[in-house]
Amino acid sequence: MDTAKEPKKRGAVSVEEPLIEIRDLLMRRSGRDVLQVDALNLRRGEILAVVGPNGGGKSTLLLALAHLLRPARGVIRFEGKPLEDWNALEYRRRISFVFQSPLLLDMTVEQNVELGLRFRGIPKEERRARVHPWLKALGIESLAQRRAAQLSGGEAQRVSLARAFVLDPELLLLDEPFAALDPPTRARLLEDMSQILKADHKTAVFVTHNLDEAAKLSHRVAVVAEGRFQQAGTAHEIKTHPAGKAVQVFLKELSQ
Hints:
CATH class of the largest domain: Alpha Beta
Helix content: 25-40%
Distance between the termini: 52 Å
Number of helices: 10
Order of helices and strands: EEEHEEHEHHHHEHEHEEHH
CATH topology of the largest domain: Rossmann fold
Strand order of the largest sheet: 6-7-8-3-9-10
Radius of gyration: 18 Å
Structural class: alpha/beta
Number of strands: 10
Oligomer: single chain
């Protein structure tokens, strides 16, 4: 049974076997090759930012990790077992996905955040014990009884993030969670997320166009461009030693 969870302190990245292993991956959509990844590992407790130009394959990688798209070739392993061998419901209960646009129901903030716990049959008192620490951590505790339609864009995204964190996922997937926000709101949420990710020992993959944002939130940055995984390393390594023309072009576009 699930037990009450509070934000936990994040230590060093684990050196044990990778949580995620990708090998010889080819993703195809509408008959067209859209993403190739020869090899990529993600360790427990590691936060990986995925950057690259529009249409480069970033979101396809997230959808593949969420097991919402099936590979045309290759394998993604979670805890050493191919995704195809996992029961779909069991696997999805071990991950959380945050989309660019918050997908909230017409109910209160508190009810939206506890929704996944309710689906899992968690008792009411236990739900409250798990929800309120995350409302507080994301600065929306005072909005607990406000309805979703009354929220600003930034507030709604905070609710979406709280709903993901409260499930205590082993893998957190975030698809440009700050992209639709105005600059001041984005900056505040980025700062809060930086604090949370430093304090909570989660494995996460998040997509962003912003290399500085990626550097602030992640342990490593992966560049996906022209439908291929191009390079992984720190933001500084990628800036100073880009691996190939596609990465160079992406960095040049960012500087313009």
